[in-house]
Amino acid sequence: MSQNKAIEELLKKLAEGAQLNEQQQKQMKDYKFWKTQPVPDLNEKITEEGPIEQKTVADISIQPYPLLKEFEWADLDLNNVEDRDEVFKLLYENYVEDADSTFRFKYSSEFLDWALKPPGYKKEWHVGVRVKASGRLIGFIAGTPADLQVRSKPVKAVEINFICVHKKLRSKRLAPILIKEVTRRVNLQGIFQALYTAGVVLPSPVSVARYNHRPINWGKLHDVGFSYLPDNVTKTQMIAKYTLRNEGKLKNLRRAELKDFDQVFTLLTKFQSKYELIQDFTRDELKHWLFGDNTLSNDKKVVHTFVVEENDRITDFFSFYLLPFTILDNPAHNELGIAYLFYYASDAEFDESDSAKAQALLKKRLTDLIGEALIIAKSLGVDVFNCVSCQDNNLFLQDLKFGEGDGILNYYLFNYKSRIISGGLDDDKHVDYGNVSKVGVVML
């Protein structure tokens, strides 16, 4: 049942005097909260794109939102080791976990620095909630600068991410107040739009994409319960299916260096001009996202970027970042290496005026490039390589043996109406291999 239909059913039950269970009550509360926010209604027909509410900084309260008496707001400084460790612990124990509580994201200090401290970040946008009596951090939400282009229109915005409430306190309705408080703080800086994603359907997605997974170490994935053996196939056959070479074949591929940045910036800017939703990077922002901390050794890097250089010209680049899982209660394995495809660009289609021929050229080039990314990821201890159906990913998913995952990723714009932007899915929300997405933003 779709979320829209589910809400309609719950409303009907309430009208008939029915009592809702705990999950249904939460669903209704979430729906009621978002009905109070400047977001489009579910299934609203968008005729005019742009901001929903028009506000100025003068309209925004300088006072934080009130909390229940046992809690207090915490301004977190991620340059402070104690604060960063508290955020790490909260996210590790409470953020995202599979239904069977088998896997947890394993955040590192390097990852948090990269994800939460891009150029222009403000520590007051790293919002925490503590228990007054103990000082324990039990809630967190983060905003980071992320100006956008929506169908070529500039939108000054932030990206909202890492909203997390302690498992035992989710009945306290802290998530909505965290959202409102970070919104207030962002508004005080004259920013009134935001981009965020969620696996659940809220009012109202601007785009919908699907996760895809490419096993690299299928045997290990099977051993820990991440992958399952299909009927009438042996484990040996599955391992053989996903085996990769140890060395790539693409000539002139090398790890990116800072001297490549100008060409990479120009290449990505041109490549992404075809998408309808992109992040409008400053030079410093893109350098941060693609190169990370250059003082780190390669084995400590969070983001890995590689370029193809021919005759002193960068023709292609790709990047991916690492965010492993901790494996719980498994005597043989304690960590799962996970890579996520990040930004890439190629000049393969630039000089071809025929759109079908241009896409065919790009498909071949991207298949070669991301094939190399898989081999490099393998050398870094990655067990599975993930991506969503954004950018031009649909062109290479089948050829490189990515499997469609169960996870749906909904993209949302806060205080901005936009017509639906294709996330590379068909009407049944499965990957449409015959079409590419119009979303160029990659969310962490």
TrEMBL record:
<dbReference type="Pfam" id="PF02799">
    <property type="entry name" value="NMT_C"/>
</dbReference>
<dbReference type="GO" id="GO:0004379">
    <property type="term" value="F:glycylpeptide N-tetradecanoyltransferase activity"/>
</dbReference>
<keyword id="KW-0012">Acyltransferase</keyword>
<dbReference type="Pfam" id="PF01233">
    <property type="entry name" value="NMT"/>
</dbReference>
<dbReference type="InterPro" id="IPR016181">
    <property type="entry name" value="Acyl_CoA_acyltransferase"/>
</dbReference>
<comment type="function">
    <text>Adds a myristoyl group to the N-terminal glycine residue of certain cellular proteins.</text>
</comment>
<dbReference type="GO" id="GO:0005737">
    <property type="term" value="C:cytoplasm"/>
</dbReference>
<feature type="domain" description="Glycylpeptide N-tetradecanoyltransferase C-terminal">
    <location>
        <begin position="223"/>
        <end position="442"/>
    </location>
</feature>
<dbReference type="InterPro" id="IPR022678">
    <property type="entry name" value="NMT_CS"/>
</dbReference>
<comment type="subunit">
    <text>Monomer.</text>
</comment>
<protein>
    <recommendedName>
        <fullName>Glycylpeptide N-tetradecanoyltransferase</fullName>
        <ecNumber>2.3.1.97</ecNumber>
    </recommendedName>
</protein>
<dbReference type="InterPro" id="IPR022676">
    <property type="entry name" value="NMT_N"/>
</dbReference>
<dbReference type="InterPro" id="IPR022677">
    <property type="entry name" value="NMT_C"/>
</dbReference>
<comment type="similarity">
    <text>Belongs to the NMT family.</text>
</comment>
<feature type="domain" description="Glycylpeptide N-tetradecanoyltransferase N-terminal">
    <location>
        <begin position="52"/>
        <end position="208"/>
    </location>
</feature>
<keyword id="KW-0808">Transferase</keyword>
<dbReference type="InterPro" id="IPR000903">
    <property type="entry name" value="NMT"/>
</dbReference>
